[in-house]
Amino acid sequence: MESSRDGAKQPERFDPGRAAQLDDPARFDYLPPAELFALLDAPKGGVVVDFGAGTGAYAFKLAQARPDLDILALDEQPQMLELLKKKLSLNPAANLRPILADGKSLEALRGGADRILAVNVLHEVGDAPLRQMADLLKPGGSILFVDWNGAIERPVGPPRDHVLTPEEAARRVQTLGMEVLTRRALRYHYALVCGLSRMD
Ligand SMILES: C[S@@+](CC[C@H](N)C(=O)[O-])C[C@H]1O[C@@H](n2cnc3c(N)ncnc32)[C@H](O)[C@@H]1O
């Protein structure tokens, strides 16, 4: 039976003990939220799923920048969502909802997302969650994958052999039936905007 990690470059589950790294403000210098949100290009009043939201570092920024959006912060680990909820209790955001990514919620959200944001997730998810991600999209919706660039030396982030090069990332999503609409090189990351062509 296919595990949710099959197909991942780095199949270890993210360790919630490292969650503080996700809230390091330095991230916003080398991976500016505004740059990601321009690529995300969410329609006014749209639904955005932050898939693998972690502590919500980017979900909170998006909620502030775009109060018109309904932002669903999905994570498979209850410990990560607890950290996000704690932040939410200190900094309420009416347009940000934490959701456990289990079979029931994924089914309920099927076909409901205008955009999906997936930051530092592609290298650690298997093929099955990538298909689930695609199932969440409305017709004409798109997914923004942003992940550490395995083709360059970096002073931060996972070792190069734990992540994908932009070419490997594009091949991976294309193999699963996604179409790469836009590619962008960021300082330590790559970004791929993907639509659906066909999902196997
Ligand atoms: C490296 S962290 C990135 C968190 C956040 N996107 C950020 O950049 O701050 C990856 C997160 O993805 C979550 N994750 C991994 N696989 C997942 C899946 N199949 N469904 C939902 N969340 C997943 C992990 O629990 C973890 O919180």
Structure keywords:
200 residues; alpha/beta; seven-stranded mixed sheet; 7 strands; 32% helix; 26% strand
Task: Tell me about this structure.
With 200 residues, the protein is an alpha/beta fold. It has a single domain, classed as Rossmann fold. The chain has eight helices and seven strands; from the N terminus they run αααβαβαβαβαβαββ. It has a seven-stranded mixed sheet with strand order 3-2-1-4-5-7-6, with helices on both faces. The longest helix is centred in the middle third of the chain and has 13 residues, at 78-90. It binds S-adenosylmethionine (SAM).
Task: Write down the Rg.
Answer: 15 Å
Domain count? 1
The number of distinct β-strands equals 7
Q: How large is the share of residues in beta strands?
A: 25-35%
The CATH homologous superfamily is termed: Vaccinia Virus protein VP39
Note poorly predicted spans.
none
Output the CATH topology: Rossmann fold
Ligands in the structure?
S-adenosylmethionine
Spatial order of the strands forming the largest sheet: 3-2-1-4-5-7-6
Oligomer: single chain
Q: Give the C-level CATH assignment.
A: Alpha Beta
Mean pLDDT reading: 95
Helical proportion?
Answer: 25-40%
Largest sheet geometry:
7 strands, mixed
Alpha plus pi helix count: 8
Categorize the overall geometry: globular
